[in-house]
Every structure is written in C-alpha cells, then in structure tokens.
Amino acid sequence: xxxxxxxxxxxxxxxxxxxxxxxxxxxxxxxxxxxxxxxxxxxxxxxxxxxxxxxxxxxxxxxxxxxxxxxxxxxxxxxxxxxxxxxxxxxxxxxxxxxxxxxxxxxxxxxxxxxxxxxxxxxxxxxxxxxxxxxxxxxxxxxxxxxxxxxxxxxxxxxxxxxxxxxxxxxxxxxxxxxxxxxxxxxxxxxxxxxxxxxxxxxxxxxxxxxxxxxxxxxxxxxxxxxxxxxxxxxxxxxxxxxxxxxxxxxxxxxxxxxxxxxxxxxxxxxxxxxxxxxxxxxxxxxxxxxxxxxxxxxxxxxxxxxxxxxxxxxxxxxxxxxxxxxxxxxxxxxxxxxxxxxxxxxxxxxxxxxxxxxxxxxxxxxxxxxxxxxxxxxxxxxxxxxxxxxxxxxxxxxxxxxxxxxxxx
Amino acid sequence: xxxxxxxxxxxxxxxxxxxxxxxxxxxxxxxxxxxxxxxxxxxxxxxxxxxxxxxxxxxxxxxxxxxxxxxxxxxxxxxxxxxxxxxxxxxxxxxxxxxxxxxxxxxxxxxxxxxxxxxxxxxxxxxxxxxxxxxxxxxxxxxxxxxxxxxxxxxxxxxxxxxxxxxxxxxxxxxxxxxxxxxxxxxxxxxxxxxxxxxxxxxxxxxxxxxxxxxxxxxxxxxxxxxxxxxxxxxxxxxxxxxxxxxxxxxxxxxxxxxxxxxxxxxxxxxxxxxxxxxxxxxxxxxxxxxxxxxxxxxxxxx
Lengths: 410, 303
Hints:
The complex is a heterodimer.
Chain A: E1 4-16, H1 26-44, E2 51-63, E3 67-71, H2 78-86, E4 93-99, E5 102-105, H3 118-128, H4 133-147, H5 162-174, E6 180-184, H6 192-207, E7 211-215, H7 219-225, E8 228-233, E9 235-241, H8 242-255, E10 271-279, E11 288-289, E12 295-303, E13 307-318, E14 323-334, E15 337-345, E16 353-363, E17 366-372, E18 377-379
Helix pairs in contact in A: 3-4, 3-5, 4-5
Chain B: H1 5-21, E1 34-37, H2 48-53, H3 55-69, H4 79-98, H5 108-135, H6 137-140, H7 149-175, H8 187-211, H9 214-228, H10 244-247, H11 251-264, H12 271-296, H13 299-302
Helix pairs in contact in B: 3-7, 4-5, 4-7, 5-7, 5-8, 5-9, 5-11, 7-8, 8-11, 8-12, 11-12
C-alpha cells in the first residue's frame, strides 16, 4: 500500500511588505519587546501594515517514493513552500504533515566554515543537514571520492577554489539519507561535467524509493527526474503528469511574447500568418505534442490581396536554432480570405523540449510574410532514447530490439 | 564493432549499475517520525525529545566554535588565560593596592582572579549567545534545527576557556597556600548557576538581537554595567545587609560570592543572596525560553 509522505492542506504564508521602522530609540527597544506578542496578534488580524500572500490555499498530497517537481515563475512561492515543509519558517494558515525524516537541500554548502578543513566541514555540514555522526563516518569515503578533493582534505576551506567548495558541498548533501528530501535549485552548480554528475546522483536518489520535492527552473531536469509536477503561482495553478504540466507551464511562459498579429501594426499587408495550432480535440493544449503521431499542424493565413504562383515554406527549429525539418510547396493561388495551411505528420519523433515553427509565403512580387511562429511548440512525449543525456540524439524514435542467435538459422 | 561503441556500452553499464544499486529497499516502516506543521502560537513547550535528537548537532556546534575560536592567532588558547590575568593585575593595582578594598583576608590577586574566572566565562558566553542567532542567519534560513541550540552552544563552548583558566587558579591557590576545604564540592553547582545565567540572559538577548540590531550596541555597555553590579572588584559585604537579597537578584552576585567561597574556603555567601540569585536565574531562564520560542517561530523571516 502506498501511503502519503507529504500531505499539505490549505497552506498559506503571508509576509509583511517592506521592513518595520528601521530605527528604534534605545529606550523603546525593551518596551517593544515586552509588548511584541500582543502587537503581533493585532497585526495578524490584518489591519495597518501592507501584506503579501506568498502562498495561499495550497493543498496536495505526495505519495511515498514519488518525485514531485515544482515549477513556477520567480516569487511564485516555491522556496517558501519548501521552507515551510522543512520547518524553517511557519505557515500563516493551514497545515501540513510530513512522514519520515526530512532533509532539506535549499542551498549548497549549508554550514560551511572557511576556517575549518575539508574534513571538518564534511562533519559539520553533514551534521547540520541532519546526518548522524555514524552515518557520516560510514559514508565519509564515498563523500570524499564523489567530491574529488581527497588531496585537500586537511586544508582549510578558505584555500579551496570556489569550484572545489561547491563540489565538496554537493557531495555532502548528495549523501543525505532522509526519507523525504526537499531540493531547491541546487543542481545548477559547478561546471557542466559536475552538473551531469550531480544530476546522475539525483536520479539515483529519486529511484531509491525516497520521496523528493524538487524545485527547478530547468525544465529538462524536471522532465528527467519527476513523476509528476505541481505548478505554483501563489496557489496550485496546475497539477498532474510531468509532460502535461511542464508543457502548459512552458506555454504560459512563452505566452508573454504572443502578440495578436491580426491587430498588430500596419494593416496594409497582402497576406499574413495569424497563428498556428495543433488540431485535436483538446482545447487548451494546442501547442503541445504529447503523442508521437499522427499530428496535424495548421497555420492560419489571412490573405488580403490575391496571390498568384505563391511559394510557401515551413521549417522547424529546435531551441538551439538547429533546423529539424524543412518543406516547401510551389504554385499556390490564394484569393482574399482566411486559410488554414495543414500539415499532417504520421509521426513527429522529436526529443522533448521547445521547438519553433517558421513559415513563409512568397509570390512573384517577393516576400508576402515570414513568421517565426509563437508560441513555440512544446514536445512532451515520452523519451524513447538512452537514459543518459549525452546519448540522446535529435530523433526520439521508438524501436523494437531483439537479440537472435545466429546458430538457429538453417 | 566501431570504436565509438565503447563509451555507449560504458554509459549503459553505468546506468544499469545505478538502477541496481538503488533497488535495495530504503528505510523501514518502523517508527517513522511524523512531523506536523501548523501556524505559530499553538504551543511553546520546549520539545525535550527533539533536543535529545539533536544532541549530536549541539556537540558539533560546540566543537566548531572551539575549533574556530583561536584559528590564525599566535597565542591561541593562551588568550583564555591572558584576559582574566590582565584584568586581575589592573584590579589588584587599583582596587586592591590603591583603593584598599577589603578582601576578607584573601590575597588580592586570588580574591580578584577567583571572581574574574566565572565572570570572564559569563561575559564570553553571554556575548557569544547574544550574537549566535544573527551570526548563523544563513544557516537558519536554509535548514531546520532547534534554534535554541545556538545560544546553548555558546554556553558550552565557553567552558573550554574556563577550564584552561582554572588551571592557573589552582596554581595561584597553591602559591598563596590557600586550601579550599570541603566547600570545593560546591564549585560545580556555582558553575552551573553561571551557565544558567548566561543561557537565560543569552536567550533574551539572542532573540532581541535577531529582531533589533540595537542590541549589538547595547552589549558592551550592558556587560560593563553588569560587571560593576557584580561583586567582582569588591566583596558583596560592601552592600548593606538589608539590601543583600535585592542585590542577589543579580544572579552573578550569587555565582561570584559562591565561587570565591568554594575556592578559598573563606567568607561563605549569605544564604538569602544565593537563594535570591537562584530564583532570579530560574525566572530569567523560563522567561527566556518562552520569549526565544516566540521569536523562533518567525526568526527565519526577520533575521
């Protein structure tokens, strides 16, 4: 039976905007201290000071062994949520229940002291992060090996390079063994190689049956590590499978760039692309690909003046602006009106991520319109490739594999 | 096979190994702690079971403070002796030889040093406790542990300096041929009283300091004031008899009188004064725990 490891019920956290009066007369200090509890009660009743709700009415349940991603823009309350669950700060309302020992990894190098040696810092940091001395003893060699700073173990930390400090810090943190782990954006440290190592370590942790809440702005990390995702925006905006929520989140993030091209600027054009969408029954996911195929993509074209011998091009780029696919159709004729240019793909074997469509229309007089389609197309299909990132190619193609013995052949 | 296939195989093997390493069952369903998180203000009791769980962290906090204290100093732990000795010399010269303060038959250096020993400990522990929360604000906002461990660790880490300085006191007692007698057994009790005083006052000041940095500027003044309100540079017999219980409300009065008596065997402290000091310490400690607990709830948001 699967039990709930984390249960959050109508959680809310309110912060006071700005600081209190910065300067307090010395004689007021003690007087204020004495009356502080009463004043705080009065303030909590909600008059006077300006407040802001960092979180409000957040409820969710995480089952044991699940890895949940938390996404949201800056200031959406992600870190606040983790801090409340870790016990660092208290909620203003609501409640939460966490089953099991909690480890929080909100920063790399918590408790590190520059005057202490590497060895001493491992013990102190490990201890403050919740490890028992015996555990640290037992995992000490592992921690050191992972960090790769063996030779400097008895050198004070202040003589370490910042890279070495980060590696040592992450190594300590990565060897925590709580039942519930809260991680906030700590994988974005060190050089690329070490980041990969950290991500691998995190994958190991998430597969180890531990419950993990994972905050990140790196959607690839979220996709790779999380079973499901919560999208926070003060409250829970959306919650569900990783592909679905991350897709919707990315869509919303790029939506800031969407302009209504039909109403935009100069209205004397001959023809203009208005928008694009994936045809399908689902109303709100018109820019997300979550099946391999078939996929119908439509581009809507508004033609104001007749176009003869038109040439229409379409191309798909990945986020590094590398061309994925290109196509061209010649000898098109359009009289004024709105057209849907449809492409049917039996399969779009793309690796998960964001892609951009580029469409164009030319005629005898030259360019009619060239449009970099917004929003980007989000591919949120299952990964059919190698488990390691560095062996993920452009094509996310499913395959059947079998090993047959040659001797059985006649 | 192409040479390119090697890293692929290796990567696959690594991935497979990872999967197998992590398939071992983790943890057990036995005695899984459940933590309830509720808005503040529902309870304030000191969670002793939790403190016991974190006793190792207390040990590490004390250990870190001791390790760090004299790093990159030439004299190192020698400072633990130099500070009280230098003050003792000044006091002996001005209060003893010039002002001719009565010392109840105890040689001046011993008279002052026996008081400076607990006082130096107290002043150090109090300052350490006061700044403990603010100095660890980074850690406080990133990880949970009972915050009360911070002032508590300052109270314990001061004991090392105390022990070092105590060695010199023993030497002085031998030099002046002062034999303490059976009252020496009360020394730990008075040390405990000093620890409680530092802890009780430290809780108040650490919490206040987290909210109002004014405390930092009050501290030097406060410590100096407290020094002259305590019988360090003079015997408490200078205080009129009927004021003595009131005087004892300064817990350090009881601590220092008791200390001098335990070490020299002369001039036992007045019971009323010690009783008043003990009561004052308890009141300060209980109040301090309550106030610290109140501030602890919001400390990560305001520190």
